[in-house]
Amino acid sequence: MEYAEIQALKQAFEEVPGTYLFNADRCRAGYHINMFCMSLSKDENRKEFLADEATYLANKFSGTTSEQRRCVLERDWLGLIKSGANIYYMSKFGATLGKSFQYMAGEMTGQGQDSYRAMMVDGGRVVAGNRNKKDNGGKVLCISNISKQDFSKKAQ
Amino acid sequence: MAKITAGIGSSHVPAIGAAFDQGLTEDPYWKPLFDGYPAAREWLKQHKPDVAIIVYNDHGSAISLESIPTFAIGVADEFQPADEGWGPRKVPVVKGHSKLAWHITESLILNEFDMTVMSKLDVDHGLTVPLNITCGQVDEWPFAVIPIAVNVVMFPVPSGDRCWRLGEAIRKAVESFPEDLKVVIFGTGGMSHQIHGERSGMINRPFDTAFLDDLTRNPERLRKIPHLEFVKESGAEGIEMVMWMTMRGALSKNIHEVYRHYHIPASNTAAGLIILEEDNY
Ligand SMILES: [Fe+2]
Questions:
Q1: In A6, A103, A120, B141, which residue has its Cα 20 to 30 A from B254's Cα atom?
Q2: pLDDT tens for residues A70-100?
Q3: Comparing C-alpha atoms, which of B48, B238, B45, B21 is closest to residue B132?
Q4: Interchain pair A124, B270: CB under 8 A
Q5: What is the ipTM of this complex?
Q6: What domains can be seen in chain A, in order of their start residue?
Q7: Mutate to test the interface with B, among A26, A120, A141, A148 (most CBs of B within 10 A)
């Protein structure tokens, strides 16, 4: 495939709102942060990380960017995705903090886990209006499939 | 001779595994999902396969970004449950079928599928959750397992059609093995779900229903679904359904649907389960 064709193909995925496809570019940018996440699938590493997060990152994963390290320390889950982390790798970091995929989704969507979970129980997020950035000015709708309720606000 | 007698499509949502492990299968949130499983388990018990080829993906558990095989095959005698950040799941060790796995490896490579050979492979929820779904909680899995790991994490992932042709090549390999073995093949992952970014939680029941229907009615349509359509219509992580294409590609034209179950939600995901049996075997 031609170089330009490959770039155009990747760009087509970027037109899907709220989606950061883990492609070769993000894999390249995210190599060290993902390897940091993966290191947490060993118990001794989890203990060492939790004892001193910043030192663990700086010493063992010095290839991470300062932005990626900030995202880890501040639990900026969407920021991690935007800076090249992959959700499956991030789940090891989440698990180390006792957080599930559903918790991380609640954070990334800005809905919070309770409101997000209620949307899922109500049939999940709609597809209509969420296919292309131009559908809705780049914003993702938080409308549920079954009752068409808006779950964008965090539950009280 | 060995033969493939049935295919099973199954989601592999980690939260389903956690619900098993934490004894939550009767919990009101989980019950409607788990109520759909005993019928499939009963069918599999009666069917009595010797070997299951399980097409799944590793989720950064045993296969890291250090090396990303597009297609890999597990040839070991056993596979340990992986630590996914919570400590390994307390499920039985997965016993392999080394002899058949090596034969499939030889046959696939000679047939131009350049497999990565895994002599050590810790298996994560992608493989163990479908085993729980179809076998329940047991002390020992009732059949040997040959893991086939597909990269569906780093794009470009293989096309649905390429995955289908891998299935066809697996069928050829199995059929040329001289021992009498009854083999079933699993395609795992999906169905519609997205678990990253602001679009997390997107679910598309009509897409999933048509996908399940067309496994028997119009599989030619499914093998040609482009990645972009999967991402838009079934969510970015719905791309896992290309692994169901390997399962379907390994079956013949003459199959029938035995059972299906579909439920929303399992955590972030629409959970699907289908059993397709060969008409004559
Ligand atoms: Fe998966």
A1: B141
A2: 999 999 999 999 999 999 999 999 999 999 9
A3: B21
A4: yes
A5: 0.97
A6: 1-99 (1.10.700.10), 100-156 (no CATH)
A7: A120
